[in-house]
Amino acid sequence: MDLQSGPSIQTNWGELWYLEIAARMLLAAFLGLMVGIERERREHAAGMRTHALVAVSSAMFMLVSTYGFPLVPEGMDLRFDPDASPPRSSAASASSGPA
Q1: CA–CA gap between residue 62 and residue 81 (Å, rounded)
Q2: pTM of the predicted model as reported, rounded to 2 decimal places
Q3: Rounded distance, CA 71 to CA 28, Å?
Q4: Tens digits of per-residue pLDDT, 9-37?
Q5: CB neighbours (10 Å) of residue 36?
Q6: Does residue 98 sit in helix, strand or coil?
Q7: Which of 39, 69, 71, 72 has the smallest count of CB within 10 Å of its CB?
Q8: How many angstroms separate the Cα of 14 from the Cα of each of 5, 9, 49, 67?
């Protein structure tokens, strides 16, 4: 299957094709459903819908945090500047919640 056909989004990492986004989201939904089916068989609290929703939202979060922010400029060293941080690390911190 050729995922590089049709409209695309231009990002700093290259082109991200809409079909590739859809394939990633469907794969996440399928894998989340598989985990949910296993849990429903064992009568655990979170089932198919919950795991499918969590898997799709996690995939969407990673797509946005990877492709949605610009890259850090070449000469900028973020290790020693406490005021500057890459947007991807901010997104990762927000998803993990306050410590």
Answers
A1: 25
A2: 0.66
A3: 26
A4: 666 566 778 888 899 999 999 999 999 99
A5: 21
A6: coil
A7: 71
A8: 14, 8, 33, 9
Burial of 56: CB neighbours in 10 Å, binned 0-12, 13-18, 19+: buried
Q: Which tokens hold the place of 18?
A: 């809409």
Q: Do 53 and 32 meet the contact criterion of CB atoms below 8 Å apart?
A: yes
C-beta of residue 28 within 8 angstroms of C-beta of residue 55: yes
Whether residue 29 contacts residue 60, with contact meaning beta carbons closer than 8 Å, is answered with no
Side-chain-facing half-sphere of 89: CA atoms under 13 Å:
9
70, β-bridge pairs: none
Structure token pair of residue 4? 């590089």
Q: Where are the domains of the chain?
A: 17-67
Alpha-carbon 2 to chain mean position: 21
User: Can you tell me the distance from the alpha carbon of 23 to that of 17, in angstroms, rounded to the nearest whole number?
Assistant: 10
Cα 55 to Cα 32: distance, rounded to the nearest angstrom: 5
Residues of the chain with pLDDT under 50: 1, 98-99
